[in-house]
Write a structure and sequence with these properties.
174 residues, alpha+beta, single chain, 9 strands, globular
């Protein structure tokens, strides 16, 4: 049991923490009220006020975005964005608001990179009112670490294996 506890302590995950802000221009496949996807991204870059593990990423660092980004219907987008060694795989998204006045989308995915463990993240996309199909957007990704649950479950699993092994040896002697 002591060995299992030691493994649990040494198996600490290193999740990504913080928030990353990006902005740029998106070209949609239709006017914003009826658009279903972004067909092209331009001038995407980081904004200021990044926090946690993203704090070292300054303003105006170029961000690589994947096109097309299909948000209706919700479509996974591997490597939706990449910057400074971090990558975000979007797993699903939800349209919160869409009209001629703007677009608000939230999503969930996984952030990885720079030696950290893959960490669940939340994506928020905002597009304000505008004319035409090429408009400015802003987006934020926040890391949502699991709070140590992975390490706890690993420790409990190892402790269970040690206990099962002792019970097996005890029964074998009887």
């Amino acid at each position: 049991m002591v060995i299992a506890g030691g493994f649990a302590l040494s198996a600490q995950a290193t999740p990504i923490t913080g928030m990353l802000n990006i902005a740029g221009t998106a070209t949609y496949n239709a006017p914003i009220a009826t658009a279903t996807q972004v067909t092209l991204f331009n001038n995407v870059h980081t904004e200021g006020a990044n926090t946690g593990d993203f704090a070292g990423i300054g303003a105006n660092v170029p961000v690589t975005m994947v096109s097309p980004y299909i948000f209706n219907p919700s479509t996974p987008s591997p490597a939706l964005w990449s910057v400074a060694g971090f990558t975000f795989d979007l797993l699903s998204s939800t349209i919160i608001f869409q009209s001629a006045d703007g677009l608000l989308i939230t999503g969930k995915g996984t952030i990885m990179g720079n030696g950290f463990d893959a960490t669940q993240g939340e994506w928020s996309w905002s597009q304000q009112k505008g004319r035409g199909t090429t408009l400015s957007f802003s987006a934020t990704t926040s890391a949502v670490p699991d709070g140590g649950m992975t390490s706890t479950l690993l420790g409990l699993g190892l402790a269970g294996l040690v206990g099962a092994g002792r019970l097996h040896r005890k029964l074998a002697k009887a």
